[in-house]
Amino acid sequence: MKQSISANKDQPLGDQIAEALGHELLSGTYRPGDALPTEMELVESFGVSRASVRSGLQALASRGIIERFVGQGTIAQDFRDWNILDPMVTGLLADHASPHPDLVRSIFEFRYSAEPLVAALAARNARARDLVAMEDAIDDMARCSSRDVAADDSFTEHDVSFHVAIYRGTHNAIWRHLAHILRPAITLVVRRSNETTEELRETLARHRALMEAIRMRDPAAAYDAALAVMRLTAGELDIAPGTTGAPEIPDPMGALFRAGGTGAAR
Amino acid sequence: MKQSISANKDQPLGDQIAEALGHELLSGTYRPGDALPTEMELVESFGVSRASVRSGLQALASRGIIERFVGQGTIAQDFRDWNILDPMVTGLLADHASPHPDLVRSIFEFRYSAEPLVAALAARNARARDLVAMEDAIDDMARCSSRDVAADDSFTEHDVSFHVAIYRGTHNAIWRHLAHILRPAITLVVRRSNETTEELRETLARHRALMEAIRMRDPAAAYDAALAVMRLTAGELDIAPGTTGAPEIPDPMGALFRAGGTGAAR
DNA sequence: GTGCCTCGTATTGTCAGACAACCCGCCTGT
DNA sequence: ACAGGCGGGTTGTCTGACAATACGAGGCAC
User: Fold this and answer.
1) Is the pLDDT of residue B245 over 60?
2) Within an 8 Å CB–CB cutoff, is residue B59 touching chain A?
3) How many pairs of residues across A and B have Cβ atoms under 8 Å apart?
């Protein structure tokens, strides 16, 4: 079974091996717990040297995708053990045609719970440059909204850039890295969401409101606005809040913000 | 300069090379942007084969710690580019004697902002098994509190286990992985905190209150209790909330929870 | 003197082959 | 029946070589 990786030469062979095997693992060719082919078998099937095969396997092992034992072989790890906070892993998942629905749900749940908080932090800490990034992203979204959304991903891309800009606006290393790492995963969710929506103006308006709250340094309003954006996305994704349990948590917080009396919550 | 890695044999050579070079990078032996020794020079200095050296370098490159160019060599990346959400990187940072204070601050800021939310999510989603893990961790903490804390890390270890159990209680893949990945980093913060505190009973009591709120499925109370724990830790770490800007964000939320009327907040 | 071209050197990427360390199942001897 | 040795199989490490690329020195034409 000659897969002949060597067609593409702009990437190290080991990375291409890792990517190919990663897709096979995602496709279910090898189930968790199964033994993968030995290094020599992979050498034959891919038509590369053992050094390159080992390079690819090491890349997968360092991310918890596989585990290797001297004298025993290589086994596929359970998906729970995958280091899903690694850029390569998230890229792999985003590229895959049919990502595990559980994972899409997990990612959206995380965003639903975290992004309001992130927006509140950004409202406190964002600097002028961060606002510029957000504004540019929104302007680009508006410019693309006239065209057919399903045709190209430019609208989705700028949508994602906007959300990433908010994470960066927290000026915290961990939140910033989270945005960078989850970027492919966020793209996945946002693309799906934008594919099913029929009205982009609403999306655009909510994003603008969120940016305005951050600009006004109003954490409570930013929390609320981000929650509204996420609710809209949830509707487009056809995810009923409460199905999973997690998404409804931030709701009382938003309600409390409206009721409470610290910040000027609208 | 024979560093003679081969003393420890219970770990692959490549990983030992990576760890040694990682510590050198953290120590400032090579500054970001500098060129690292060539593979052949490392072969001589470590006394291992080029294959092992390459294995170690690849492990570092895959985590954004170094970047390699054909025909040019290897350069040290800026710390901002490090994939700090990788277990090996966080382990490296935790092992290092004097981790960058900026990073410790970032990690604590992140926890300060996120853990109240995580606690609220756990209050919604935690199952009986998660409560068992929390209770066991607290019992172990209580058992260790009689001994000298500075002497051994058992108290700290169980403290960290408690926090990790809360993350797991969210039943969300991303939060769960975050806890796993940040475990060494959390240990770093908790150990420092526990070293400087003189009264462990207070720490224990607040942890118990947090667990009780989660047990009672009261997100608002859990949010509040977690905030109290984090404030205590901040005090022990001698971090004035507001110094960095980020930590003060959750405070108004806590205030709103106390003022608001959804859950039985304490 | 200056600018361009070429070639050599240095470095990482890839290949090939071999041995070492280790695990497992089989087989033999008691 | 059971214990121990033994051999095949797999990953880890070593060695040596060549390929691909980048940079700089040197020569050459103008």
Assistant:
1) no
2) yes
3) 150
